[in-house]
Amino acid sequence: MTQTEMAISTRGEHDRDDGDAGAEWLVVAGQECRDLWTSGRGLVLLICFSVLLSAITYLTSTNQALNFLEQREAVNLVLQYAVAVGSLLTLVVAADGISGERERSTLESLLVTPVSRRAIIAGKLAAGLSLWLGAFVVSVPYVWVLERGLGIFGRALTIGLLIGTLVAFGLGSIGLLISAASTSNKTSLAASVFLLLVLFAPTQLPSGLPQGWFFDVLELGNPVASGLRYISGGLVAAHSWDRDLSFLVSPLVVALVAGTALFWLSPRLVRLTPAGRPA
Fold first, then answer.
1. How many Å apart are CA 115 and CA 146, to the nearest integer?
2. Among 28, 154, 159, 270, which one is least packed by beta carbons within 10 Å?
3. Which residues neighbour 116 within 8 Å (Cβ) at sequence distance 6 or greater?
4. CA-CA distance, 129 to 105, in Å (whole number)?
5. How far is CA 10 from CA 13, 253, 279, in A?
């Protein structure tokens, strides 16, 4: 370890991380958001997302041969894609948060700034969540078009924002944990995307497959699948807000556990070497 690295490690562990991050995370979040959006990365991703939603909206509303979905199901489909893609974008940005800084040799300069490591983690997570919020805003006009007077526009947006924020927060926190422990940025990104595919794949299985308690447990334990199931129940089946609360347990638990772990472990996560490895 170089003298500079030793100074960063000593200062970070003894001078800053024991204190309150305060409003420092807002400064970090502002800088991270500027880097994300002014570089064009965030805008390009949202443009691609809008193209996807445009295709879905066209197929479900104008093509008579493929228009087998009812209006409620079409709105549900758009919101599910918004949650899934928005969570993916948050996860990918979070997975680049620590390991990417290491590979670009910019983490050292970040560590010498008068900002606590918890503030750095919180700012990076906020920047990732800004992509989810961007995806949600993009989906609003598509929901309005497909809803066409059903009277569920406000309900759809409320459910989508609630579930999407929970899922994106939990997956973004996990992405930062993976990023801190990964030896390379490619490993972090690959592991994070693989995790999302594992969580999202069960939601695409045909509904005619055999069902049972085992599959119900798997669904309830999957924050993505259970979150999307809650959306479907509230929009397609018109269930009351409190009828499917069991499907909110998994997204809430993942968000709380991953978020708490990220906060308490942040002094050990933001470092020049992967977490768990000797400095």
1. 46
2. 154
3. 16, 17, 19, 20, 21, 24
4. 24
5. 5, 34, 11
Whether 160 contacts 230, CB under 8 Å: no
**Separation between Cα atoms, residue 234 and residue 275, nearest integer Å:** 41
Say if CB 94 and CB 179 are below 8 A apart.
yes
Q: Which tokens is 277 given?
A: 């490895």
Closest CA to 72 of 163, 156, 158, 161: 156
- Phi and psi (nearest 5°) for 222? -100, 110
pTM of the model: 0.83
DSSP letter for each residue of 5-32:
HHHHHHHIIIIITTS--TTHHHHHHHHH
* d(C-alpha 236, C-alpha 74), whole Å: 9
Tokens of 146: 């497909």
Distance from C-alpha of 116 to C-alpha of 25, rounded to nearest angstrom: 8
- Lookup result for tokens 């948060």: 97
pLDDT in single tens digits along all 279 residues of the chain: 443 443 344 444 444 444 444 678 888 888 889 888 988 888 898 999 999 889 888 877 765 444 445 778 888 888 988 998 888 889 988 998 888 888 888 888 888 888 888 889 999 999 999 999 999 999 999 999 888 778 889 999 999 999 999 999 999 999 999 998 888 888 998 998 888 888 877 766 655 445 666 666 777 888 988 999 999 999 888 888 888 898 999 999 999 999 999 989 888 888 877 755 555
Helices 153-181 & 246-269 angle (0-180, nearest 10): 30
Q: How many CA atoms lie within 13 A of 112 on its CB side?
A: 9
Contact 111, 8 (CB under 8 A): yes
Q: Is the dihedral of CA 26, 186, 167, 141 positive or negative?
A: positive
Phi, psi for residue 78 in degrees, rounded to 5: -65, -45
